[in-house]
């Protein structure tokens, strides 16, 4: 063998030995570097996360690489209250009794065979931690809020994951306690009038008495639909009274608004209602904000006719409460139909939890939260009017997929009725829509079964959650003068501060705002304060749409104006 070949053989052998040794000694580091450098970090996620139900605006964007989500360490610390300890090339991240340690950027004894991310990323000098490390070592769950259509990431603490599904992601609530608040007609202050619709439930022979019996509680009110032009349903109203309740009438001008006139029919309808001498919520021309009624799309005419009906009722039937009632969506058209505070006694909203929207398998809506479907109307109007849930129903079977969804119905009913009295004190009525629409709806709408009396698990969920004394069975005779207001969902945390949409400060704290480029001027009782606003886009309750919150720092405002407040169990209480 020539000297040249010998040297070449020795060099080659040495190289192979070194390479083999490196692979034996540090296979994880080599693979980790190859894997981490396979492509650049992608961004494009929303600038917020939902952590245990609250919205948090991020200091730095969420990233994605090789199928893993990455969150900056400063954001993880600010949002989840994890602690860090750094010592030369060693970093330890801990949460309560759990921790993960990185040495030279890598988790020791990391098993890449299980497709774990063994290191963090450094971008512009900042550490980004992968979701796999956050989940495995610290116990948090990091995923999409609804699904990846929203590009919004959710982080759940171990404590939140331990709760039942319908206990999750409630978030914080702001409560405002006020004294000496005038009550609307027959408005309760200690709870919510329990109501229902049973006139199409053949399973119980359409009987209100039977419904009271099987649910274990007398309902304070029942409703029925009446077409405009039909007489006031006196006989049915007397049956409601005999069953221990008072009637709500959903009065619908289904031939259009032109038929609504100050004539003999309208006057007689009002006189018949007035003769009963019991409270009567009159849900005139509801769901006008949609496109499916004969009076949709005509807001000026609608308001004109509403005022006409109001004036007649005020004169002929002072026991009637004018209930202005919308559907939960679309939101954009709701306010254009509002007749004005002096013409409305109660503001109502109809809410349904369906498994699919519009009978389309691709429009799955099982993620929708009944409480969040309430939030827009509640936050917009509850500072000035008590709120009514005119109809509520949850699907237990749908023809869209031909499947039973009993657990879905149980979850949504439980969530609605369990938390409503506590979190939404301005809700004063709720009516369950106890109907199997597969049988009773008009053609084209025979899609969902909402009935609760046919299946024991669903009936039990309803019965168990209405047992509380906060659901009222009779008229409250002497309502308290004090009132509690609440505001939910349109708030977020950023850089350790609580921001709330200016709507809250304006409507619930009676403050005014003046905009000046990058600052807002908040004015209260002649005194002013400049604050820096922050905006965030959060997911709406349905259809993966976004809404923008123009937030201002609430605690800074409360402190400056000397308003009394305190935190209780994560909720903010303001004493006004």
TrEMBL record:
InterPro entries: GH (IPR017853), GH26_dom (IPR022790), Glyco_hydro_26 (IPR000805). Keywords: Glycosidase, Hydrolase. One of its GO terms (biological process) is substituted mannan metabolic process. The active site is at residues 287, 391. It comes from the Bacteria. PROSITE patterns: GH26. Residues 160-462 form the GH26 domain. GO terms for molecular function: mannan endo-1,4-beta-mannosidase activity. The keyword Lipid biosynthesis does not apply. Belongs to the glycosyl hydrolase 26 family. PANTHER family: GH26 DOMAIN-CONTAINING PROTEIN-RELATED, MANNAN ENDO-1,4-BETA-MANNOSIDASE E-RELATED. This is Glycosyl hydrolase. It comes from Cytobacillus firmus.
